[in-house]
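Escalated from tier 1: adenosine monophosphate holo job.
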Amino acid sequence: MRVIESPAEYRQFCESSRLAGRRVGFVPTMGALHAGHLALIQRAREHADCVLVSIFVNPTQFGQNEDLSRYPRELAADVQKCESAGAAAVFAPTTAAMYLPEEQTRVSTGRLATHLCGAKRPGHFTGVCTVVNKFFCLTGPCCAVFGKKDYQQFKIIERMVADLFLPIELIAHPTVREVDGLALSSRNRLLSAEQRRAALGLPQALDAARVQFNSGVRSASVLEETAATCLRKSGVRIDYACVVDADTLAPCSEPVIGGDRALLALAAFAGETRLIDNTVLGEAAEISGR
Ligand code: AMP
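Tier 2 regenerated the structure:
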């Protein structure tokens, strides 16, 4: 399997694959790959003959006080994992290659990016959309697979693809979890044993709110408080615990959630490590890897 660093060479590789009549699928990642990423690659293989995986820790999506320098990097192991998952090539560019010295262009985001992580991490989704758009331009994929663990990210990219008329089918894959419910994340490997235990508060909070929702509770603030109580008990520091409209991501009107479904989205710190998780209340819980 090829590991390509140069954008020009990568573009050439993708172009040749398309000319050979292959359907190109794409999975963007920041590396430190786990079974969640591999599930995305496998999913892409169901839709494409040739799956490309990018591994790039994108600096423009990190804020100044965030964990860019701490973010785990393990390219050699990642390449092996991509190979066993059946990827055709890995694209692992340098930052200098992705952001030209004279660069000045960004993809700007709109309302969807003003809520949840967008509110807590100003500029984050601009960085995400910019780099994903660069990757889309270099790859020219028929389809691209993203995880629902980053629900807001998926919604924003879906919007970008529609707004910019990008000819790419987007596929959202369910969150892959550890047996105890913790969503797989590259950041989990930064957790101490105690922080790992505390992190279980996130899936527990989702489960508790889901039970309450299924028993008929429709007040966003009651559901948020249930989730927040779980998080506090487990010892993580809450960044947000919000019940929002699953399509617009705007806060639900009180006292009652309008429709039959709503997104419960969580972000919390275990020590210095920020974790996110979510579930769509009112939809069957997706069990993946549990
Ligand atoms: P990242 O490397 O964290 O930027 O993630 C790359 C892609 O993998 C994104 O589309 C994520 O949503 C997805 N992803 C990360 N963790 C999981 C997970 N536990 N289950 C499914 N997809 C995931």
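Residues 29-30, 36-37, 40, 146-147, 149-150, 173, 175-176, 183-186 surround adenosine monophosphate (CB under 6 Å).
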